[in-house]
């Protein structure tokens, strides 16, 4: 299906017959995570607006979404082509893209931010969003590691702000961590939990603590794997094989680092290290820094710990 399908006038047909808690969803940032979140929201009957800073980036995201949707359709409908096509068409009709951030939130019931993992950049965005969105609109961040309370601090809607932490690849991973700060209202929390279930995710709740549940365990584990490699104790390939065959993980730590993005992982570690300098688990390694400085960010740039086909 052509990319232009994403820019057609939005059809409200499917969602208008569904009684969704939060119908109009704006996703800011169309990278790895934002495109997946937008896709899953559209698949489940929401009207979705996906925002990024340029049209070429949005075009890339649209193509990623279409490829992923084809995989989902294949799984859902096997060889039933008419049903598969109908599913793709209806999902794409519920998705539109734009570079106009302020306009994108005018009718939003919820805005999910999935931009770069940097507090200042997120603050600048949320200041703009807070002015542009209706008072009733809920705000959520998909941050991997930053404090939701600190991100929300620049807005006048701290009670309508929470964390919605998705996992990569969003169309496949079943978990959604719902983060409530001390100021998140019960109403906001309940709506976010219902929204998560409507997206087809299993929700768990966590306080606003570094890394929430999954990353608090996963990121130090990946950091420790890099330290093993740096010391020359084992090769990346052998460490990956060990964790897949010895611990039953679907990917080894280096495959996962390449999948998540070395830059994202380094941002996480550096941020935690700055806040908690005495915790050795949060120490970023020289090898990770070197690879990132060389632009070897993992699958998204074609090389990280391994070489990949782009
Ligand atoms: N879109 C849609 N479907 C997809 C997909 C995508 N992007 N990627 C994989 N799939 C589907 C495939 O179509 C396939 O479907 P079938 O079972 O019907 O064939 C299924 O998922 C399995 O895919 P593959 O056969 O291609 O490969 P696989 O079996 O190796 O699984 C994987 C791929 C699901 C990514 C698996 O390797 C895995 O679970 N890896 C670990 C991922 C993980 O840990 N994610 C969390 C990262 S941490 C994070 O996200 C948080 C953070 O803040 C950093
Ligand atoms: P990414 O680099 O793939 O995508 C980020 C996108 O945001 C880019 O397309 C960029 O152009 C866009 N962007 C940057 N500033 C913007 C702005 N002001 N307005 C609109 N768009 C803007 O990053 P990602 O991996 O998708 O991560 C996004 C967020 O999700 C981060 O906070 C990250 O920590 C978190 N996260 C990442 C993963 C992962 O596995 N990569 C998993 C869970 C959560």
UniProtKB/TrEMBL annotation:
<feature type="binding site">
    <location>
        <position position="68"/>
    </location>
    <ligand>
        <name>CoA</name>
    </ligand>
</feature>
<keyword id="KW-0379">Hydroxylation</keyword>
<feature type="site" description="Important for catalytic activity">
    <location>
        <position position="165"/>
    </location>
</feature>
<keyword id="KW-0443">Lipid metabolism</keyword>
<feature type="binding site">
    <location>
        <begin position="29"/>
        <end position="34"/>
    </location>
    <ligand>
        <name>NAD(+)</name>
    </ligand>
</feature>
<feature type="binding site">
    <location>
        <position position="117"/>
    </location>
    <ligand>
        <name>NAD(+)</name>
    </ligand>
</feature>
<dbReference type="InterPro" id="IPR022694">
    <property type="entry name" value="3-OHacyl-CoA_DH"/>
</dbReference>
<dbReference type="InterPro" id="IPR006180">
    <property type="entry name" value="3-OHacyl-CoA_DH_CS"/>
</dbReference>
<keyword id="KW-0809">Transit peptide</keyword>
<dbReference type="GO" id="GO:0030154">
    <property type="term" value="P:cell differentiation"/>
</dbReference>
<feature type="domain" description="3-hydroxyacyl-CoA dehydrogenase C-terminal">
    <location>
        <begin position="211"/>
        <end position="307"/>
    </location>
</feature>
<dbReference type="InterPro" id="IPR006176">
    <property type="entry name" value="3-OHacyl-CoA_DH_NAD-bd"/>
</dbReference>
<dbReference type="InterPro" id="IPR008927">
    <property type="entry name" value="6-PGluconate_DH-like_C_sf"/>
</dbReference>
<dbReference type="GO" id="GO:0006635">
    <property type="term" value="P:fatty acid beta-oxidation"/>
</dbReference>
<feature type="binding site">
    <location>
        <position position="75"/>
    </location>
    <ligand>
        <name>CoA</name>
    </ligand>
</feature>
<dbReference type="Pfam" id="PF00725">
    <property type="entry name" value="3HCDH"/>
</dbReference>
<keyword id="KW-0560">Oxidoreductase</keyword>
<dbReference type="GO" id="GO:0070403">
    <property type="term" value="F:NAD+ binding"/>
</dbReference>
<feature type="binding site">
    <location>
        <position position="52"/>
    </location>
    <ligand>
        <name>NAD(+)</name>
    </ligand>
</feature>
<keyword id="KW-0276">Fatty acid metabolism</keyword>
<dbReference type="InterPro" id="IPR013328">
    <property type="entry name" value="6PGD_dom2"/>
</dbReference>
<dbReference type="GO" id="GO:0005759">
    <property type="term" value="C:mitochondrial matrix"/>
</dbReference>
<comment type="similarity">
    <text>Belongs to the 3-hydroxyacyl-CoA dehydrogenase family.</text>
</comment>
<feature type="binding site">
    <location>
        <position position="144"/>
    </location>
    <ligand>
        <name>NAD(+)</name>
    </ligand>
</feature>
<dbReference type="InterPro" id="IPR036291">
    <property type="entry name" value="NAD(P)-bd_dom_sf"/>
</dbReference>
<comment type="subunit">
    <text>Homodimer. Interacts with GLUD1; this interaction inhibits the activation of glutamate dehydrogenase 1 (GLUD1).</text>
</comment>
<dbReference type="GO" id="GO:0003857">
    <property type="term" value="F:(3S)-3-hydroxyacyl-CoA dehydrogenase (NAD+) activity"/>
</dbReference>
<feature type="binding site">
    <location>
        <position position="144"/>
    </location>
    <ligand>
        <name>CoA</name>
    </ligand>
</feature>
<feature type="binding site">
    <location>
        <position position="122"/>
    </location>
    <ligand>
        <name>NAD(+)</name>
    </ligand>
</feature>
<comment type="function">
    <text>Mitochondrial fatty acid beta-oxidation enzyme that catalyzes the third step of the beta-oxidation cycle for medium and short-chain 3-hydroxy fatty acyl-CoAs (C4 to C10). Plays a role in the control of insulin secretion by inhibiting the activation of glutamate dehydrogenase 1 (GLUD1), an enzyme that has an important role in regulating amino acid-induced insulin secretion. Plays a role in the maintenance of normal spermatogenesis through the reduction of fatty acid accumulation in the testes.</text>
</comment>
<dbReference type="InterPro" id="IPR006108">
    <property type="entry name" value="3HC_DH_C"/>
</dbReference>
<dbReference type="Pfam" id="PF02737">
    <property type="entry name" value="3HCDH_N"/>
</dbReference>
<feature type="binding site">
    <location>
        <position position="300"/>
    </location>
    <ligand>
        <name>NAD(+)</name>
    </ligand>
</feature>
<keyword id="KW-0007">Acetylation</keyword>
<feature type="binding site">
    <location>
        <position position="168"/>
    </location>
    <ligand>
        <name>NAD(+)</name>
    </ligand>
</feature>
<keyword id="KW-0221">Differentiation</keyword>
<keyword id="KW-0520">NAD</keyword>
<feature type="domain" description="3-hydroxyacyl-CoA dehydrogenase NAD binding">
    <location>
        <begin position="24"/>
        <end position="209"/>
    </location>
</feature>
<protein>
    <recommendedName>
        <fullName>Hydroxyacyl-coenzyme A dehydrogenase, mitochondrial</fullName>
        <ecNumber>1.1.1.35</ecNumber>
    </recommendedName>
</protein>
<keyword id="KW-0496">Mitochondrion</keyword>
<dbReference type="GO" id="GO:0007283">
    <property type="term" value="P:spermatogenesis"/>
</dbReference>
<comment type="pathway">
    <text>Lipid metabolism; fatty acid beta-oxidation.</text>
</comment>
């Amino acid at each position: 299906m052509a990319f232009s399908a994403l820019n057609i006038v939005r059809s409200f047909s499917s969602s208008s017959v569904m009684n969704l808690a939060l119908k109009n969803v704006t996703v800011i940032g169309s990278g790895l995570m934002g495109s997946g979140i937008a896709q899953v929201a559209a698949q489940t009957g929401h009207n979705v607006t996906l925002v990024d800073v340029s049209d070429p980036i949005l075009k890339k995201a649209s193509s990623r979404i279409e490829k992923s949707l084809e995989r989902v359709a294949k799984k859902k409908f096997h060889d039933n082509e008419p049903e598969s096509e109908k599913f793709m068409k209806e999902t794409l009709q519920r998705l539109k893209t734009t570079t106009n951030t302020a306009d994108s939130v005018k009718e939003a019931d919820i805005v999910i931010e999935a931009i770069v993992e940097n507090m200042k950049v997120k603050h600048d965005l949320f200041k703009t969003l807070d002015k542009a969105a209706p008072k009733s609109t809920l705000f959520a961040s998909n941050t991997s590691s930053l404090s939701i309370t600190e991100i929300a601090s620049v807005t006048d809607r701290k009670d309508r702000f929470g964390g919605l932490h998705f996992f990569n690849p969003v169309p496949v991973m079943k978990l959604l961590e719902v983060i409530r700060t001390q100021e998140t209202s019960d109403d906001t929390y309940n709506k976010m939990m219902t929204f998560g279930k409507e997206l087809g995710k299993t929700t768990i709740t966590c306080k606003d603590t570094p890394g929430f549940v999954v990353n608090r365990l996963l990121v130090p584990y990946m950091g420790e794997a890099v330290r093993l490699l740096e010391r020359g104790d084992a090769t990346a390939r052998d460490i990956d094989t060990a964790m897949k065959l010895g611990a039953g993980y679907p990917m080894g730590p280096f495959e996962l680092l390449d999948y998540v993005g070395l830059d994202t992982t380094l941002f996480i570690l550096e941020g935690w290290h700055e806040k908690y300098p005495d915790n050795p688990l949060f120490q970023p390694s020289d090898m990770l820094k070197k690879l990132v400085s060389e632009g070897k960010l993992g699958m998204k740039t074609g090389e990280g710990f391994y070489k990949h086909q782009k």
